[in-house]
Amino acid sequence: MRESLQSILKAVEEGKMTSREAHDELKGYENLGYARVDSARSKRKGFPEVVYGGGKTAEQLVEITATIMKDGRSVLATRISEEKAARVQAFHNEITYDPVSRLLYYRQGDVVSTGRRVGVLCAGTSDLRVAEEAAVTADVMGNEVHRIYDVGVAGLHRLLDALPEIDACDVLIVVAGMEGALPSVVGGLAPQPLIAVPTSVGYGANMEGLATLLGMLNSCSSGITVVNIDNGFGAAYSATLMNRIGWRENGR
Amino acid sequence: MRESLQSILKAVEEGKMTSREAHDELKGYENLGYARVDSARSKRKGFPEVVYGGGKTAEQLVEITATIMKDGRSVLATRISEEKAARVQAFHNEITYDPVSRLLYYRQGDVVSTGRRVGVLCAGTSDLRVAEEAAVTADVMGNEVHRIYDVGVAGLHRLLDALPEIDACDVLIVVAGMEGALPSVVGGLAPQPLIAVPTSVGYGANMEGLATLLGMLNSCSSGITVVNIDNGFGAAYSATLMNRIGWRENGR
Amino acid sequence: MRESLQSILKAVEEGKMTSREAHDELKGYENLGYARVDSARSKRKGFPEVVYGGGKTAEQLVEITATIMKDGRSVLATRISEEKAARVQAFHNEITYDPVSRLLYYRQGDVVSTGRRVGVLCAGTSDLRVAEEAAVTADVMGNEVHRIYDVGVAGLHRLLDALPEIDACDVLIVVAGMEGALPSVVGGLAPQPLIAVPTSVGYGANMEGLATLLGMLNSCSSGITVVNIDNGFGAAYSATLMNRIGWRENGR
Amino acid sequence: MRESLQSILKAVEEGKMTSREAHDELKGYENLGYARVDSARSKRKGFPEVVYGGGKTAEQLVEITATIMKDGRSVLATRISEEKAARVQAFHNEITYDPVSRLLYYRQGDVVSTGRRVGVLCAGTSDLRVAEEAAVTADVMGNEVHRIYDVGVAGLHRLLDALPEIDACDVLIVVAGMEGALPSVVGGLAPQPLIAVPTSVGYGANMEGLATLLGMLNSCSSGITVVNIDNGFGAAYSATLMNRIGWRENGR
Amino acid sequence: MRESLQSILKAVEEGKMTSREAHDELKGYENLGYARVDSARSKRKGFPEVVYGGGKTAEQLVEITATIMKDGRSVLATRISEEKAARVQAFHNEITYDPVSRLLYYRQGDVVSTGRRVGVLCAGTSDLRVAEEAAVTADVMGNEVHRIYDVGVAGLHRLLDALPEIDACDVLIVVAGMEGALPSVVGGLAPQPLIAVPTSVGYGANMEGLATLLGMLNSCSSGITVVNIDNGFGAAYSATLMNRIGWRENGR
Amino acid sequence: MRESLQSILKAVEEGKMTSREAHDELKGYENLGYARVDSARSKRKGFPEVVYGGGKTAEQLVEITATIMKDGRSVLATRISEEKAARVQAFHNEITYDPVSRLLYYRQGDVVSTGRRVGVLCAGTSDLRVAEEAAVTADVMGNEVHRIYDVGVAGLHRLLDALPEIDACDVLIVVAGMEGALPSVVGGLAPQPLIAVPTSVGYGANMEGLATLLGMLNSCSSGITVVNIDNGFGAAYSATLMNRIGWRENGR
Amino acid sequence: MRESLQSILKAVEEGKMTSREAHDELKGYENLGYARVDSARSKRKGFPEVVYGGGKTAEQLVEITATIMKDGRSVLATRISEEKAARVQAFHNEITYDPVSRLLYYRQGDVVSTGRRVGVLCAGTSDLRVAEEAAVTADVMGNEVHRIYDVGVAGLHRLLDALPEIDACDVLIVVAGMEGALPSVVGGLAPQPLIAVPTSVGYGANMEGLATLLGMLNSCSSGITVVNIDNGFGAAYSATLMNRIGWRENGR
Amino acid sequence: MRESLQSILKAVEEGKMTSREAHDELKGYENLGYARVDSARSKRKGFPEVVYGGGKTAEQLVEITATIMKDGRSVLATRISEEKAARVQAFHNEITYDPVSRLLYYRQGDVVSTGRRVGVLCAGTSDLRVAEEAAVTADVMGNEVHRIYDVGVAGLHRLLDALPEIDACDVLIVVAGMEGALPSVVGGLAPQPLIAVPTSVGYGANMEGLATLLGMLNSCSSGITVVNIDNGFGAAYSATLMNRIGWRENGR
Asked: Measured at the alpha carbon of residue B239, what is the angle toward residues B237 and B242, in degrees to the nearest 5?
């Protein structure tokens, strides 16, 4: 659908394409009944459909990943429990599972490197799972990844000390729980686009990350955008799209 | 009531006090019908009853302040509109009104200086009204006050530059709106007790200060306590009680 | 502060810089008492401090903008009422005011063009004020801006028809109220980074944009990040930072 | 009670009915102590009382279903765990249990077909349980059912491709989690009444379906009504009532 | 777009349609810059685009309504203040304005009667504005309308007395504020599809209709679907789509 | 309807009542089109229908009160603005208006005294409007009323001093804003049924009385029930019903 | 403390009481370290301290109940798990445990019958646990109890049929989950004071009873007061206090 | 960083410090990869970094505590499960674990006594875990601790009886669940700074402590500040900072 309707209609009119071909061009998915795997996703977004593991059975995951992989496309599945991962790996032994980030992935030749670097910062050790979901995703999607962990604002010198490392990144992903102040402080110091990821680390009035999310949305620093609570994957996906900016200029 | 019931009962039993005197000792208020002015507040809390102006008529304010002042006690009234202030001042021309903090006050000889200093910090110019409510209250209640304004985390060097000034305070009041990150950063650097005051400065997901309040309650820095949104008065009142700690040791 | 502490310390040690110069280098602000104007913001973030107009008086705005402009820096102030704008313009007649976006701005030579294009989409005519805040900000900050308005999902063909225009942008800002479904649909079709801006357009269970915000944060499409309700300015600021990615590679 | 009070009173007055019979006519339930099974439900609503399984013991379910079935009425019970289902089936082996939708049902001759078709769409594979609750209920209540699954807006072509199938339905039930954008898009394209069912599929700011629900209630498309989160049953019940519209015209 | 893509592609291939015609067929809107008026809405949904008045200027309303009316299509605009209405009527004097429902409308020959009846019930006199928005919309869209007002559950006999009138309707719209119990009671008695409309009538814990909305979504009666708070228009729109069910069977 | 259906049916059967009379007996309201005034309310509840003034026009209020008064029934209308009150009094000059409680009332001979006393306590002067709504309602409905105002827990001795007065009441209504602690303290000391009324007095995290309401619902003292925020009327209505307990025993 | 301070002071002054006795009179509790059992509760409230079981260990429950029982006072403990109950019964075998209501109780001679009747209604079978907590508590506290279960508004005739039974009660407790409409309907029909108890029965937008609670607080029927979600105990406690009204008149 | 930047720069300039030393002075942490242990915390805050146990593995806890202890610094870790505690104690057998407060601690010579007293009050036995977290923390951090438990307002005499004990404290920590009224009552009587700690003890509308928290933030008593739900540790930390006020005056 990214190619405008007009050009496809034109091609049909000029006999360069049959209506069947036009239809297939626009169709772009495989129907498994309970799932329609989006085979055109790569063409539209530059990366194959990513599988959201929440609420899917191991059987469904096996079949969906097989459908994606069979044409040489890379697989990335999020929020996969250790048990489900084991069952998928029993069928597809080339797939890697990372128990910290709970990601299941297999990178094939279809992923082009962005040639740029994503910095992943987190405020505390308890935010590690989410930070790793961001870092591993960014890596699988073709970015160089730099991890800067446990630099929360309660010990500000740890962060200031990391400024040279931060400086070397093209996009920043800043992961924090509790009051989520870290993105505001980093955003006041760094000139890169910054994606803030609230985590559900906290208790009481934190309300499983809601307070953190609200804090980040209200940041007094400019240049900050926000994703859903614990959505390390989404932050890395957006960071990748940012790191592809200018490809066209450079003839990619 | 602060003197234990037992000592009063003892005094009655020993004939040192009549039951009538005991009752009056415990009564400690003047009944205006719509209001019972707490004349024993000074004895219990070290400062006369403070008048909450919200929802009171000018006529009520005139009578209540007169009741407080007539025995040489100081007056402090919060959330007073300019119009109501003018009507109270028409009756009591010695009372001062400050339109920024919306405080109405008249300090008499009953207020003892704490001999200590309160630092009032705010994140942005828009937080000024609340910061001034804290600063003026702290001053009226007998503290030395030091103002450090517009030191929000988006320009961190402004705050770091103020560290020597901050160092010279005994208690810190930190006022901020939006995501409210300033208390976390100050709390990571300074060893004093810190009272965080969320303001209703912000929009959208700030929900009139609720996001700020939640952020402050979830701070990852230790040594921070929080008051209600826009409650500069309450912060200064608590700071004053803190600055009185140790009076007894020093024989006051 | 962006230059690491170490290099400044080194310079002092080697006698290339006095401690006074080092301090001034780190200080970087002008203290007006009620405000500390961050003169180092341009150096850190590539654009001078933007003034948040909410809660500031006209007098404060006049003085703050004067402070920013005097060194040849550009001014951008948000959420300015027509009345305040008139009072600022009385002092600084070179400043432009746009009543739709409520922005006050004056662009000087310090703003470098990004050389890239921001697409601003909105779902309905009622979202215009926020869309214009984004579009005008993006323009002032040095981007080419393309407006694609009233392409809400209730008439999907309007959006599909605009796909070629969308295709020509480097970053997308998608503004919508009510259920906020537009970013999900655009994000499913377009490969650019997409910043979703919820607006407070709606009623009842919309809760002044909160439902819209929540919808965007939960989008099933990847590559979407979100800013606060009605924060067109923030979206454009982030889009500008994204459009500067790769400057270093190209020697800028 | 559907027959107006007046006609029953009239019948009593005219001696066509005793006061006892009138009372029984109006009574219409069987009292089990802990439950009063509504035997008049069929007459009023065209389908027997449906049993809400949440919070009922297996023993209660056995007795209640027996009470419903004994007069030749169909049984439908929702939210039944596998364990409770097994215990009910031990007593009533003609009852079917579907573990995906968690429905327990037994259709007898009292259900009249609507002669019309319900389309059940869902956005993703994770929404299957709720979609099946709707589909099975619609089937048990006498509708032809057409399932169109995994057509979420992130891959819009999957939905557009299904338009001919959608076109053949009389009422649409659209099930979605996360931001719940699917009903808005379908509602912009299809002329049938559309019942939107939010699911609790999502995480973080989804708040177990609350964000989805709010999104659907604020849809910019017209012709959409909404039911409670995960309430596939309720959507199918309403769809059935819609599909009976016009029966009277046709003499049913 | 309702005609499947395939049939249009086929027509192009067979030379029955040029690619230009196919494009125009799919385009179906007029671009006013700030608005794209959806001229294909009638074909897709059976009624022209309805104008949401909130946040639109009188000038925009004049131009948008003119665009809709010029091809003989009916106009319906919601949430129009008296002042804006007067300015639109100055240009289009054939348009009617109803100050109770705040609807602006002009019915032309393109609206086909449904031949069926909508019953509009409301719980109290304070709900009148919303009930009338539903009733007038249902009338403009071609339904027979029956109003049954002030039948709240605090005086149940008023409702029971109206049962024969209720019985004569094909679809019910039930409008209520406060706790919103009326739909549950009506839904327990009546066999028609019931659309519940919460109103913002109430105070305190009603939270401007939120409590009412929640109550209706949780109704223990089956056959109820819900629309947004105060959305009388949306209820009537859905009721109209329901009343068109079966048209195809009858050859319409 | 309070007389059981059976006894009315019996009377019809025995010829003691015609079906018409039975119907009228059950009907019990007057239909003004926009309102159905419940003339049977007195018989069911022991007091005529009370008019909720919110959202009603002055014209509607004039007609509704006339309908109630014409048969010698008392009138009570709540939430009436001064302006509307003046317009109603222009028609019915015997009606009293109280601007503090915003009640409009006229007591006729149909109200029987309960012979018991309601104590109305409030925490602060700002709660006066709500406390007076309770006190005046209780008086109009036939209770002796005792007012005990400004006895908030910040000056506990004021409350303890009022214990003998509290002791002389049969039912207690306790009105408070802010944190709403007063009912808990009174409920710990007094043996009467206690109705807690939260007010919207407060700011910030009070959320217009929501925090107060929640506090009262969670009271650690037993014997407390709660009404909606600012609902002084409802508390007094319930207190009256409580004060009628035992009438039957005493042959009333 | 219920005897006014003055009378005790008087007695001390007149030598009728020593200061020690006066102190003991006012003290009225036994200090177990982790708990101060309130032995004066009976005198103040007419029933001994009720033990809230949530968060207490079995060991603490054993010791606390022993402390209450040793002076011939009755025990009532709420929210006791089966396991904890067994451990308490091992020590005090005269205590009864009811697994449905999760109450642990032992009634001694100190409880005086109210001589009046409490009606406990519930909307559905799933509300049974809460209804039984109310019914058993009311029984233990000396009321006659009448249970009327499963009379929810979806089958209104079940409720109307029970009106004669309802009529025979002095106070009504109405328990309901989901939208909680039952109290509104009963409150429109019955003249007794009505205590509404929301339950956490429901799902999705019910938010564990919050929607139910809000519905009940906003009831359009008068004479209804509300307690916390699932608080059957609190409703029965208040009902008991109501049923004691008038004791004094009758010389009790 | 507490020593102002200027003095360090001066020292470097004067050759009293190398740039390397200056850097190390500012660095002050040990990088474990997943954690940067803040070794400068003691110098800034007067107590070593406290470990938040939530979300950390036993392995991480072992290594982090070892890092803190190795230089003679005291360890305090919060929210440690019994299982994790056992694994840490296996490595560091000198560490104490308290299962009630879930604190893990080891006090070394670096903690200086404040020489003052903290009073810890709690409302009920169910609040014990949080009260103990406060009490043990205050003890470990060098305060004398006085526990006053189960003095909730439902039995006010228990509290009044404890007034002499309360009087002997320098700072008060008041722990309560449910409606959280205790701080308001204590704050009305006592002149010390009071830190209110809401607990998650309660049910239904308590929303796991949120209602309690809101109540405390809205207290009508002055001199109260609040911490997060169940944050006994944070209250004690702040109390300690308060108890150090005046150290400088006394030459400490």
From this structure: 115
Contact B216/B196 with Cβ under 8 angstroms? yes
- Cα separations in angstroms, F243 against B178, F111, G197: 51, 14, 21
Alpha carbons H111 and H139: distance in angstroms, whole number: 10
* Residue H237 vs residues A91, A157, G229, H46, H143: alpha-carbon distances, Å: 54, 22, 35, 11, 10
Nearest CA to CA, how far is F33 from chain D (Å)?
21
- In the three-class reduction of DSSP (H, G, I as helix; E, B as strand; rest coil), residue C174 is classed as strand
Alpha-carbon E126 to chain mean position: 20
Taking alpha carbons only, the member of E67, E58, E76 closest to residue E33 is: E67
- Chain B residues closer than 8 Å to F202 by CB: 54
D191-209, pLDDT tens digit by residue?
A: 999 999 999 999 999 999 9
Establish whether chain A is in contact with chain G, requiring a minimum of 3 CB pairs below 8 angstroms: no
Strands (DSSP E) found in G90-170: 96-98, 103-106, 117-122, 144-148
Give the residue on G whose Cα is nearest the Cα of F249: G116
Residues from chain B that touch G12, judged by Cβ atoms under 8 A, are: 9, 12-13, 19
Contact partners for chain A, using 3 or more CB pairs closer than 8 A, are B, C, D, E, H
Measure CB to CB from residue A225 to each of C4, C226, C246 and give the nearest one: C226
ipTM: 0.91
In this structure, what are the phi and psi dihedrals at residue B139, rounded to the nearest 5 degrees? -65, -50
DSSP-derived pairing of the beta strands G103-106 and G75-78? antiparallel
Q: Is the per-residue pLDDT at D242 higher than 60?
A: yes
Taking CB atoms within 8 Å and a gap of at least 24, the contacts of D35-39 are: D35/D60, D35/D63, D35/D64, D35/G124, D35/G125, D35/G149, D35/G150, D36/G149, D36/G150, D36/G151, D36/G155, D36/G158, D37/D64, D37/D67, D37/D68, D38/G154, D38/G155, D38/G158, D39/D71
Q: Residue A2: what pLDDT?
A: 41
Report chain F residues whose CB lies below 8 A from the CB of E209. none
Contact indicator for C55, B126 with CB cutoff of 8 Å: yes
Q: Do D35 and G125 touch (CB under 8 A)?
A: yes
Q: What secondary structure letter does DSSP report for F205? A: G
Using the predicted structure, report yes or no on whether residue A106 has a pLDDT greater than 80.
Answer: yes
Interface test mutation site (partner A, options H228, H229, H231, max chain A beta carbons within 10 A): H228
Query: d(Cα C49, Cα C231) in Å, to the nearest integer?
Result: 17
Amino acid B116 reads R
Amino acid identity, residue G176? Answer: A
Q: Which residue type occupies B100? A: V
Positive or negative CA dihedral for B177, B182, B187, B192?
Answer: negative
pLDDT surpasses 80 at A104: yes
How confident is residue B248, by pLDDT bands cut at 50, 70 and 90?
low
- Element housing H76 (H / E): strand H75-78
CB-based burial of residue D131 (10 Å sphere; 0-12 exposed, 13-18 middle, 19+ buried)?
buried
| Amino acid C247: pLDDT | 73
* Alpha-carbon torsion, ordered E224, E230, E236, E242, to 10 deg: -30
Residue type for position F187: G
The whole model's pTM is what? 0.93
Which residue in the set A10, A13, A26 is minimally distant from E5, CB to CB?
A: A26
